[in-house]
Amino acid sequence: MKRLNIYIDESGDPGFTKGGSKLYTISFTLHETINSLEKEINYLNDKLDMIGYKGMIHMALLVAKRGEYSNYNLEKRRNIFWPLYYFLKRSKVKIKTIVIDKRYQNTRKQLNKELSKQIEDFININKEYFEKFGKIYIYYDNGQEQLNYILDSAFSSFSNVEKIVEFDHEEERLFQVSDMLTFIDKLYYKKKNHISLTNAEKYFLSNEQLKHIMLSLKNKRI
């Protein structure tokens, strides 16, 4: 039975409180389990071992120099990022990111409606692809209740879908890839649309590095 794993993560918040995020970003990483990633995962873990880091990579904290990364300088934090990027580049996976610009939404209800539309469009466009699989497992940790509801509704027409809520975030490196994609695609959107960056976002990747990353991942987009 062909199996597809979909790893979903988000960045930002869907609310409109003062000081809240300007964007709400959802990323999907799709892996057909017939394509082994053992070699690529070993590559990633070996690279991280070389720089003395073995934990889960959390991009928001890594970029902002917070949490367990608070004592790491910029060079070491970048050295943690690059192996995860190259892991994605080397892996046979498909990716998708949805960016909701809250400047064009006035309420949480409008945002949820737009998010639902974009997720449903993504699924409908790729319906034949999804129907090839005997089983689809969605890895999402129920971060936002409304997104959880939207995902359930969008995939409701598929009888072969099962959601996995409890999983080892550190072990599931592709979940960390989705987390990384929310940062990369959010940063690209901000720069392209002249949205102000945080100080951490300004210096973590150069314009040339970001352009190279986006170009190198183009063929993985679905």
Would you give an account of this structure?
By secondary structure, this protein is of the alpha/beta class. The chain has a domain at 8-108 and 168-220. It has 9 helices and 5 strands. It has a 5-stranded mixed β-sheet, with helices on both faces. Helix 3 crosses helix 7. It is globular. It starts with a strand and ends in a 6-residue tail after the last helix.
Structure summarized in a few sentences:
The chain has 222 residues and is α/β, with parallel strands linked by helices. It has helices at residues 38-50, 59-64, 74-90, 108-125, 127-130, 145-154, 173-192, 199-204, 207-216; strands at 3-11, 23-32, 94-101, 135-139, 161-164.
Percent of sequence in beta strands: 15-25%
Query: Helix- and strand-based class?
Result: alpha/beta
Number of distinct beta strands: 5
| Helix content estimate | 40-55%
The radius of gyration is 17 Å
Main pleated-sheet profile: 5 strands, mixed
Average pLDDT rating: 93
**Cα separation of the termini:** 22 Å
Shape: globular
Enumerate how many helices there are, as a single number. Answer: 9
Poorly predicted runs of 5 or more residues: none
Order of helices and strands: EEHHHEHHEHEHHH
Strand order of the largest sheet: 3-2-1-4-5
Descriptive key words:
single chain, 222 residues, alpha/beta
